């Protein structure tokens, strides 16, 4: 009696097992990566080479965000500070702190601020500080920092109360739905341009201290009405199409 199945069918179960194993491994790898804090981001709080305390520098010492993140108003991306930016202060302040070892290494000096030299007596060039990125939009998403900041959207709306964080963490989801919620109701986030970098801004307090009149000459006292006034005044019309972010 002739064989019902061809000879190659003998290894078919093995092929199916290998394919199922590969698919299973891919699913596990995908879940492991995309369900991790680094991908989901909310609550992600990595350790940094220098334990930079935003609460100390911003909330207590009064430093402006733009001193370190100097490109935010003029560029699509927000830069992290170079070692030179940190060194402007810390060559004089907390000079010998062990927390600043990475900064001194980047500047090529030891704890006594003397140049680090090799065995031949030549100065050793320092390496950049390897900061760990906390906030990162996917490569397929276009986000322009300057466009938002120059229309009254504060750092706080996207990054939370960073000025109160001793160790920065990812406070908001930055998901597509989260972005669309803001685009559909920008009046909840927009504020006067001079208050964009005031992380203690309160719309109600602002209206109590400043006289703001609507189109009919009536004073605005309600924060939500104030937001709608700013949106109309600046002609803010956030787009909701896919092409807005996926370019």
Written description of the protein model:
By secondary structure, this protein is mainly α. Helix 5 packs across helix 6. The chain has a domain of 141 residues. The model has no long low-confidence stretch (mean pLDDT 90). The termini are far apart.
SSE arrangement:
Elements: H1 12-34, H2 37-40, H3 54-60, H4 65-68, H5 83-90, H6 101-107, H7 145-149, H8 155-159, H9 176-184, H10 203-209, H11 223-234
Shape: flat
Helix tally? 11
Sketch the topology as an H/E string, one letter per element: HHHHHHHHHHH
Structural class, by secondary structure, is: mainly alpha
User: What's the Cα radius of gyration?
Assistant: 26 Å
Determine the N-to-C terminus distance. 63 Å
Total count of strands? 0
| Low-pLDDT windows of residues | none
Which range best describes the helical content: under 10%, 10-25%, 25-40%, 40-55%, 55-70% or over 70%? 25-40%
Mean pLDDT: 90
């Amino acid at each position: 009696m002739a064989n019902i199945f061809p000879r190659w069918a003998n290894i078919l179960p093995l092929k199916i097992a290998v394919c199922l194993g590969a698919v299973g491994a891919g699913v596990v790898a995908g879940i492991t990566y995309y369900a991790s804090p680094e991908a989901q981001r909310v609550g992600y709080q990595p350790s940094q080479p220098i334990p930079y305390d935003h609460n100390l520098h911003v909330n207590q010492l009064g430093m402006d965000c733009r001193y370190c993140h100097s490109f935010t108003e003029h560029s699509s991306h927000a830069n992290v500070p170079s070692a030179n930016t940190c060194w402007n202060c810390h060559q004089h302040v907390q000079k010998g702190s062990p927390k600043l070892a990475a900064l001194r290494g980047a500047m090529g000096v030891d704890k006594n601020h003397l140049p680090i030299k090799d065995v031949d007596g030549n100065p050793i060039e320092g390496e950049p500080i390897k900061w760990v990125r906390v906030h990162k939009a996917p490569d397929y998403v276009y986000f322009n920092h300057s466009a938002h900041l120059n229309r009254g959207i504060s750092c706080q709306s996207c990054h939370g109360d960073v000025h109160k964080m001793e160790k920065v963490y990812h406070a908001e989801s930055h998901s597509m739905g989260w972005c669309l919620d803001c685009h559909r109701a920008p009046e909840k986030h927009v504020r006067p341009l001079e208050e964009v970098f005031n992380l203690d801004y309160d719309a109600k307090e602002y209206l109590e201290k400043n006289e703001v009149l609507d189109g009919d000459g009536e004073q605005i006292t309600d924060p939500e009405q104030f937001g709608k006034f700013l949106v109309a005044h600046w002609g803010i019309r956030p787009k909701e199409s896919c092409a807005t972010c996926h370019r």
